[in-house]
Write a structure and sequence with these properties.
- The structure is a single chain.
- By secondary structure, the protein is an alpha+beta fold.
- The chain contains 16 helices and 20 strands.
- Among the domains are: 119 residues, Uridine Diphospho-n-acetylenolpyruvylglucosamine Reductase, domain 3 (2-Layer Sandwich); 112 residues, Alpha-Beta Plaits, CATH 3.30.70.2190; 78 residues, Alpha-Beta Plaits.
- The strands form five sheets. The protein has a seven-stranded antiparallel sheet with strand order 15-12-14-13-17-18-16, with helices on both faces. A five-stranded antiparallel sheet has the order 5-6-10-8-9.
- Strand 8 and strand 9 form a beta hairpin.
- Helix 1 runs antiparallel to helix 3 and helix 9 crosses helix 12.
- The longest helix has 15 residues.
- The chain is globular and about 70 Å long.
Length: 481
Amino acid sequence: MDPFIRALIAVVGAERVLSDPADMAPYLTDWRGRYRGVARAVVCPESTGEVAAVVRLCAGHEVPIVPQGGNTGLCGGATPGADGEAIVLALGRLNRIRDIDADNNTIVVEAGCTLAAVQTAAVEAGRLFPLSLASEGSCTIGGNLSTNAGGVQVLRYGNTRELVLGLEAVLPDGRVWDGLRGLRKDNTGYDLKQLFIGAEGTLGVITAAVLKLYPAIHQRATAWVAVPDPVSAVHMLGLMRRHCGDRVTAFEIVGRSALDLVLAHIPGSRDPLLGRPEWSVLIELSDPAESADTRTLLEAALSHAVDEGLACDAVVANSLAQASALWALRENISEAQRLEGVSIKHDVSVPVSRIPDFLDRARQRLTQMWPDIRIVAFGHIGDGNLHYNLSKQAAEANAAFVGRTSEANRIVHDLVASLGGSISAEHGLGQLKRDEILRYKPAVEMELMRSIKRTLDPQGLMNPGKVLDVTVRAGRANEKI
């Protein structure tokens, strides 16, 4: 047996070191099936101490580490490379809720907890953890933190970064940094936790976090609304916030092509409106007050929107089941696209005011290049984050079309940059955009990021090939500048 594998077994036990190809296979492919890698082993620790011991062992043997949570990422950030040198550090067994402090409105959770488990624990304590993603049943808190996940309620509660008070992380040399402080004010130097949030495991392994909780929601109102165009959608967002204030929890835009894919591929899906509008928005209001009448408030705001020509038609959910059915249309778009086949995907953000400009100008430029292109556009219009995905109507044409990703990226990403936007809003960079980001980040910003990487991970062992174009190993340096 490989001495390194034997040493791993001594740390975590034979049953938690997978080296058989069949056992490792689920960990070596990303959710979309775009990236496939090779690993020396898959290691499944059960505690922070075991994670630290594994990391120390890898540092001593110069073995790269690919941290992995629920493996639901969309950019290949948790998939090992093809060289077979790395181990996959699967963190799903670190799944304990360590503490809930209802008076402090905090919960301490381990990185392998699913997002749904944290949401449930918060509800049982009479609180709300507001991060909400379509993959919440399988994605994990460690992955959410590592990619600074966004989701549908950023408009009211912010990205994951804004929901974290403290972290525990294993550093690349195996030391444990205990920063699990549930403080909202701590002005004692650099805010180190922010280095690890959004770093996709390239600076260390997040093992636990202190997360913010909020008052439980007692009243909700949900509506699916047809709008004339994206300009109307943006103006309607402003109207809703004027009339409803912070009760506007989510404001999602869905293009016709995105909804049609759901209707075609997801059993039980039904078009909520007649007339097949080209653009729709999904709106949710919520309020912690039991006496709140969010439905009446929503209906009154929608009436104003119709009067101002911002809304054409609407349906307001009459029950939790109806609200869930409306949300399922939005949340199943990614799954429907996966079932439809491969496509060129973009996760971009622009200032909310520039969303109509982006959608109009991108469509013009893309259809000029490919007249038969299908544009699947949807996303979180309330925070400027659009998922903008491209394919051909004929599924058999998409394999060749994906080969022209770089041309599509030039059109989409250059336009995003010209509008003051970002080419990665909430999915991270992973492998997918590691090189693409070099075109858009200032050189000084890239050098600062590389400097942080070299300082914390001088051996270059933490999730190599992701986020940054840096590969540094002990005893030798091979850095792409």
